[in-house]
Amino acid sequence: MDALNEKLQIREVVENWAVWRDAGDWERFRTVWHDDGHMMATWFQGPAERFIDVSREGWNKGVSILHFLGGTSIDIAGNRAIAQTKMTISQRASVDGVVCDVVCTGRFYDFFEKRGPRWAIVLRQPIYEKDRLDPVDPHAALQLDADLLAQFPDGYRHLAYVQTKNGFTVKRDMPTLKGAEVEALYRRGAAWLQDA
Fold this sequence. Notes:
The protein is of the alpha+beta class and 196 residues long. The protein contains 6 helices and 6 strands; from the N terminus they run ααββαββββααα. The protein has helices at residues 3-23, 26-30, 48-61, 146-149, 157-165, 180-194, and strands at 33-40, 45-47, 64-77, 80-95, 98-115, 118-135. A 6-stranded mixed beta sheet has the order 2-1-6-5-4-3. It is globular, with a radius of gyration of 17 Å. The mean pLDDT is 96.
């Protein structure tokens, strides 16, 4: 199969991830992962199967986290690929009694592998680049805890703040636009392709 068709298959998996997860279509969502797939996020790090379970639990409790996708860049080496896709995470939640929307822009950095005829995700590691927090009611008064806010990295500071306020334990060394974490991720991605 030519490279363009391979890239189209990978892009379809990326798009299916966002649509099926946000729609709560858990059985189809499971198909975007290989059995040993892993998900890294601010609030969850672990096997894809467990991520599906906790996402479903959150869905059933009314947790509202949505994903929007932009352009994709895909590098393929044999049966392996790295896909980077521009994305926005949008979460609605209450912060100290004020309903807010937090929006974080970044990239999904996906480790793909083709096993048999099927491309699927082995590891998804988001890169968090920029975020903001706004009350849904523009007249609502929201006072942030400056000390808590300052504990989180720039790229996902407000997202982490909202998630922490809502009871999640947030990983504080996720890759952002620049820095040691994202450079280490790029090296890992290069090694993934080189070892194909």
